[in-house]
Design a protein that fits this description.
Elements: E1 2-9, H1 18-26, E2 35-41, E3 44-50, E4 63-64, E5 70-78, H2 81-90, H3 101-111, E6 121-129, E7 134-139, E8 148-151, E9 156-160, H4 163-167, H5 178-187, E10 200-202, E11 207-212, E12 221-222, H6 236-253, E13 261-264, H7 269-281, E14 287-293, H8 301-311, E15 314-320, H9 328-335, H10 344-355, E16 360-362, H11 367-371, H12 375-389, H13 392-405, H14 419-426, H15 429-437, H16 442-448, H17 451-457, H18 463-471, H19 478-504, E17 509-511, H20 517-524, H21 528-531, H22 539-544, H23 551-554, H24 565-570, H25 574-579, H26 584-589, H27 594-605, H28 612-630
Parallel strand pairs: 13-14, 13-16, 14-15, 16-17
Antiparallel strand pairs: 1-3, 1-9, 2-3, 4-5, 5-6, 6-7, 7-11, 8-9, 8-10, 11-12
Length: 631
């Protein structure tokens, strides 16, 4: 795993200062503490920071091809590189290293931009072709590895693995994009295709970009997509066997490393499945790690220890206090952009624990999105059945009216919190899912914004790109469209951003076997009943893992990492909450109605409502703005 950065002049191929590229790489040194390098030519500069995983001494970067015609910087892992290497050797390619980086170069020289379709893995890379005078940028199918891009005033494009790399460039402007603020307040992150800063974007997952000297900046080109439009046929036993084969293949292919390797183990279905299959494939005990909390209601460590005993892993666990709010500033620094998923804190802590003994850790991320494992998928499935019986003309006034008058009962037991469900049923399937996915629905945001911000935002609404994505998805049903949105929108924006920044902050490589694209494509073709059945998500996966895991692991309620932000804001962070409406960075923007913000804070502190997610969003936005202003 590594960090990459570079500069490419679109217009006149001006000289690139190697020191400038080095400064961009130094800003992301945590991604690659084992080596560094810079390569420049007229109009282009490429930089690299290396975390050695495979071919420890033999694959320095930037890497120049044997014939000197192409140069590569690469972040990620190619899991089929050995098979590709042999295929390319049979076609006449020669190799001087044993790693995957040189395989990418040879694939580029044989297949050009189509090389990405031959690569199985996680990656973001840049290849400069000296003959064609082009720079090719590509990002993996699901967006495991990030790539930021910025257009600069001198006619160049700068890129880097994190926003930090671009912030090290003196020509980068730091103007906040109001549309990104709308996105962030809605989703809790800024999705692909945009960033918090104007002129900066993230190359979307499964996209590439080919830049030429003397040509304008082209739009990104999509090179991979997942389709839910086809349905796999067959008996449950046969589909289960195929799924298990794909799971084994995905896990075993990600166990290749020349450094210590282990796994995260939470005790949930996904991480437990990965560990069980690792144990099956390994001749030695798998190294596993987990964290527990000193609050029983939040602690899953007993389940992790149960799986560790069953799989005979070399397990280490650490108890941490949920009162980890002192790390908030470090968290803001880690993500650069505002990022409101509070589970990033425990994710970072478990990455720290893993890094004490391993350099590579396998995670269980991806199965919920691929196989319908979230509660919202079950709701979507059930709500669509209701929608199929009641026409929109009846549902909108009936459920919309009930939802409008139903109280926001955060204090009530979960079955009585019906407001969101009623409002969801009032709209169509895509609108309902957008509401389920959002941190802050439109009516809440509108009540917080100032008139000045509404003018800045114009007609744009954060739901618009998601609704378009779902309505144009290659899909048959509402559940299909929901999962498609998760894989294309939520997964790269939230889940993969979280694990990438948290792991890379401690120089740990995280691998996600459940995001193997062959597994994803298979899961997307499953009939709905193989994904959701009898109130259970991930039905076929749980069935396939019965021979490996006990039922109390497979069928217990999903929990995940929980951070007690509601309690924090009513306790040690209460004064911090009261400062949010008048904090310097937020107050200076003029984006919010401070009186309404103050009401939001007081309603939470008094226990009238749970506004902790919005308060956390505002706090992380404040931290990000303060950092941009201070740099």
């Amino acid at each position: 795993m590594c960090g990459i950065a570079g500069i490419f002049h679109l217009e006149t191929p001006k000289p690139v200062d190697p020191a400038r590229v080095k400064a961009m790489c130094d800003a992301i040194a945590h991604r690659g503490p084992d080596g560094q390098g810079v390569w420049t030519a007229p109009g282009v500069g490429l930089g690299h920071r290396r975390l050695s995983i495979i071919d420890l001494a033999g694959s320095p970067q930037p890497m120049v091809s044997l014939d000197g015609r192409a140069v590569l910087v690469f972040n990620g892992e190619i899991y089929n590189y050995r098979e590709l290497r042999q295929e390319l050797k049979n076609a006449g390619a020669k190799f001087r290293t044993d790693g995957d980086s040189e395989v990418i170069l040879a694939a580029w020289q044989r297949w050009g931009t189509d090389c990405v379709t031959h690569l199985h893995g996680m990656f973001a890379f840049a290849i400069y072709d000296l003959d064609a005078r082009t720079l090719f940028l590509a990002r993996d199918r699901l967006g495991v590895k990030p790539l930021f891009l910025a257009t600069l005033s001198d006619g160049s494009v700068a890129f880097g693995s994190e926003l930090k790399a671009l912030l090290a460039h003196p020509l980068l402007r730091r103007d906040i994009d109001p549309l990104a603020v709308e996105d962030y307040l809605t989703w809790g992150y800024v999705p692909d295709g945009r960033s918090i800063l104007k002129g900066v974007a993230k190359l979307p997952a499964g996209h590439s970009l080919l830049l030429r000297h003397g040509a304008p900046l082209p739009p990104p080109s999509q090179w991979w997509d997942v389709s839910f439009a086809e349905r796999r046929k067959g008996k449950a036993e046969d589909l289960e066997a195929e799924l298990l084969h794909l799971l084994r293949q995905a896990v075993s292919s990600r166990m290749t490393a020349d450094v210590p390797l282990g796994a995260f183990l939470s005790g949930g279905v996904d991480s437990s499945s990965v560990v069980a299959l690792m144990a099956e494939a390994s001749t030695r005990p798998v190294r596993t790690c987990s964290i527990g909390f000193d609050v029983a209601a939040l602690d899953e460590s007993a389940y992790a220890e149960q799986v560790a005993r069953q799989c005979r892993t070399d397990h280490v666990s650490r108890l941490v206090s949920p009162d980890d709010f002192e790390a908030i500033d470090r968290l803001a620094e880690m993500f650069d952009e505002p990022f409101a998923d509070a589970s990033a804190l425990p994710t970072w802590r478990v990455c720290q624990l893993a890094r004490e003994t391993v350099t590579v850790a396998l995670s269980g991320d991806g199965a919920d999105e691929a196989l319908a494992g979230y509660r919202r998928h079950l709701f979507q499935f059930g709500e669509d059945r209701i929608r199929s019986f009641l026409p929109q003309g009846l549902r909108k006034p009936l459920f919309g009216g009930l939802g409008a008058i139903y109280p926001k009962a955060d204090w009530a037991p979960r079955p009585m919190r019906a407001k969101t469900t009623l409002l969801s049923l009032a709209g169509d399937s895509t609108e309902g899912y957008a509401r389920a996915l959002s941190y802050a629905p439109a009516e809440l945001r509108e009540g917080l914004y100032s008139d000045a911000f509404r003018r800045l935002r114009g007609d744009y609404r954060a739901e618009q790109p998601l609704l378009h994505l779902m309505r144009s998805a290659p899909a048959r049903s509402g559940l299909d469209r929901a999962q498609y949105a998760d894989l294309k929108f939520w997964l790269p924006g939230d889940i993969l951003t979280k694990i990438d920044r948290a792991s890379m902050a401690v120089s740990l490589e995280a691998r996600e076997p459940l995001l193997d694209h062959r597994l994803i494509e298979f899961a997307a073709s499953l009939p709905e009943g193989m994904r959701v059945r009898r109130g259970q998500g991930k039905w076929l996966m749980k069935r396939a893992m019965r021979r490996f895991l006990p039922e109390d692991i497979l069928y217990r309620p999903k929990q995940g990492f929980v951070t007690p932000i509601a309690q924090w804001f009513r306790g040690p962070l209460s004064e911090t909450a009261r400062k949010i409406p008048v904090s310097t960075a937020l107050a200076q923007t003029g984006w919010f109605d401070n009186r309404r913000l103050a009401g939001l804070v007081e309603a939470h502190l008094s226990g009238v409502s749970d506004n902790s997610r919005m308060l956390w969003q505002l706090l992380m936005l404040e931290k990000a703005l303060t950092r941009f202003n201070a740099d």
